[in-house]
Give the backbone structure.
Amino acid sequence: MEKSVCRSCYNPCEVMSLVALLCFTCLCLDYLTFNGKSNRDTTHPNKESADLCSGQYIYVYDLPSRFNDEILKNCTSLIKWIDMCPAVVNEGLGPRIDDSRGILSHGNWFATNQFLLEVIFRNRMRQYKCLTNDSSLASAVFVPFYSGLDVGRHLWNFSTSVRDSLGQDLANWLADRPEWKKMWGRDHFLIGGRISWDFRRQTNNGSDWGNNLMFQPEFKNTTMLSIESSSWNNDLAIPYPTYFHPSSETEVLEWQNKVRKQERPYLFSFAGAPRPSLEDSIRSELINQCQASNGTCALLTCSYVRNKCNDPVEVMNVFESSVFCLQPPGDSYTRRSTFDSILAGCIPVFFHPGSAYVQYIWHLPKNYSKYSVFIREDEVKNGHFSIKQVLSRISSDAVLSMREEVVKLIPRIVYADPRSRDHKFQDAFDTAVKGVLERIESIRRRVSDGMDPSHGFSDQNSTKFDMPVSA
C-alpha cells in the first residue's frame, strides 16, 4: 500500500519558533533605529539633502599680507589729510560713540568711516556660515584685497605706475592660481570701499583720477561690489557702512521701534555742503530753499570751519527729527547720508536715479515709490520749484506707509558687528553675498547652455543710470 504524499511538511512548533524569531528581530531593529544605533544614518539620508551649504560655499584666498594687512598697518598714510588709525579699531567699525544726549539707542554704535567697507566685509566674511577650505566645492571665490585703501593712499601726487602697481601684482598672483582657471575669474569677487570710478582710469595721463584696476584684463573677469557702481556691468553697488552695527536681532528691533515712535518736528532736512564748482549741482538751491522754509527744514551745514556732518550724533539727531531727508548728488551720484537717513526712519528724497534706484538693486525695493520720493533735478535747477510745497502735499497716510517701508529696510542696510555670532537677521553683508552667488550661478547656467560667459559680463552699459520702471 502506497504512502500518502504529505503536501504540508511544516511542523507547527517550527513555524511558531520562526514567527517568534522574526518578531524579535523586528523589535530589535525598531529599538535600534529609535535609539539612533542602526547602521543607516537617518539624519543624513543622502549627501545632497544634508548639505545646507550646497550652492553657497565661498572660498577665501589667503592673500599675501601686502594686499591687505600691511596696508592697514600703515594707517597714517591711507588718506592724505586724515589720520585713519583711530578709524580702523574694532575690526574696522571705529571707536564707540559717546552719546550723552540719548539720541542713539543702547546698541552697537560706532564712528565708522565710510571708506572702511573692505575691512568690515572681510571681517564679516570670517563669520560666514558656508566657508570652505576646499576650493573645488566653492560656488564663489572671495578676494580680500583692500582695493579702496590702496588707491586712496595714492590719489594725490603719485604717478599712474605707482597707483596701478599693487593691482597689477595681484592680477599676476591670481592668474597663477588653480582656482582662477576654473572659470577664469568669473566666479571671483572683491570689495571696493570707494566709488567704482576710482578704479577705472582709462588713460595713462598722470592728471587723470584713480587707478586702472578694473580695466586690467584679469579684473575684467571679476565682479566688484563697491559703495557706488559705475556704468560697467561687472560693477555692483552695496550699501555704505552706517554708524550702527548691531550684534543681535533684538538690538535691531529695539531701534526700529524707537524710530517708528520718533517725533519729527521738521518736514524735511538737508545735511551737506554746496558744490559751487559743479555747474549742474542743485545743492545751493536746496540749501536756499531750506533756509527760506520758515522753520520747516533742518539744515546741517558741512563746512570746513565747523563740520557737524562728521559728528554721528548730530547727523542722526537731524534725520530722526525729519519726515523727509534730501539726498542730492554731490561729487558723485551716491551718498552715505542716504543710508544714515534710512537708519533714522527718514524718507529719502532723490533727484537722480543713479543715487539709489539703479545702484543698490539687491538691498532696496524695485518699487522705489514705496519708500522714497523722486524729484527731477531739472525741476529744481530753475529755482521755481518748491520742495516744501511738494512734500507738504503728501498725505499723512502715505507718509506713514512710506516710513514703515523705510523702517523695514533697516536690517538689510546695516552691517552687523563682525565680532558677534548672535545676529539672526539678514544684514547688508548677507544680502550682498546672496546677490553675488546668484549672479555667479547665472553665469554658470550660461556656460552649461553653451553660451559665451564673457558676452556682456564687463561691458559698459550706456543705459544703466536711466530712470527704471517702478514695479
Q: What stands out?
A: The longest strand covers residues 188-195. DSSP finds 15 helices and ten strands in the chain. The chain has a mean pLDDT of 90.
